[in-house]
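Annex B. Sample input.
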Amino acid sequence: MTESTSAKELAVQWKTARRLYPVYFELAREFVIDVQPSADLEAGVETPGKEAVEQANRWIEEMDQRIQVHQLRQFLQTSSLATPEGLLDLLQHYLAKAAKTDAIRDKIDFLLVQYFSQIAPTGLVDTDVDLAYVAKEMEPALGKVELKPPVWLNALDRVLEAARRCRSLDELLHGGVLEQGRKAKSLAGDLFYLPVALVAFTRFGYLMRRAFFKLMLGDLNTILDGLGELEERGIKTIDCRRAQFSSDEPILRLRMICQSWKVMFQAEYSSGQPLRMLVDLRASVDYALGRGKGAEQAKSGTQAKSAPAAKPAATAPKPAATAAKPAAAPAKPAATTAKPAPKPMVAAKPAPAAAKAAASAVSAKGPAVTKPVAKPAAAPAAAVKPKAKPAVASSDAPEFEVSSERNWDADAGAPGKKKN
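Annex B, continued. Sample output.
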């Protein structure tokens, strides 16, 4: 390696480190990651020495190890630093890594979809999102891609069709659709990084987000309609313990929660705690209305258990020979007495997750749906100081923004998006 080549490579590495540093530093502040700032990167040195570049590379590598996938997702949905250019820098940084762990793969998978979501025009319909279109839009990240997808990528289209057939989030979460998508990504192994596979997974993730958004909005509107119907009946509170609220939750408060419940949930579409709350809240409203799975099961269970109660009366006229067993007679109806419904495992008081989700008003990016509300980038401090907001668990990391308006349009005017 010549000195000129080495100097050129060092210059490229330094340029990359300087681009990533503001994002990583602010992310460390956001999630209280205890890391010391890089003095040279902090100062913005233009022509550093070899030792400074190596130190910067070690700083970036340490952050790569410590930043979790869900933290990257959450931060990039709410930060003004998450521009298309910034996403592209991150994506190329991870793609250039020689050793790619499952965590690196998941970060790349998210960044592909997030980048495409930002550069895709508004008004884009699902039928237009074919491999050729995605490959063209992704050229800044992936270069020109030869579109000869292997047969195994057809599994992604089957998963998308299954997702489109779902009628609710509950069906999507518990019908095995999401597991099929994750399995396809996991089974791909190193083939995931084939250029055509990266294009296919970008398209898959983008369209899955859209299907997810539609179901989420449908559930929210169903809940709001159900609350309105309950109010018309004069009902003011309902039992929402299954959704981690109280046993007599005011309908007025639930309506306010649904109308402000815009930050939703996780890119991986896993059945995390906040997402289960939405599904369970719909089930609670359906139960209060006397419909849905819970109401049907309760009704059928009551009928089934009440039937044996008639048996003692029917068998009462017994011959005298059977009168010698008085103790056995009452034992039978006692065994068939309907058992009380088991109490929910969730306490009556709202859980912290419920309060957090209810009070949350942070905006999150979606796929050609709604852009995040930009928050001003904080200037790097002398050291990464803990903020009040701790790192959240993976299941609580929001990704999507859902409007509570009934006429919400998934493709309407997201700021910063291209127009057709």
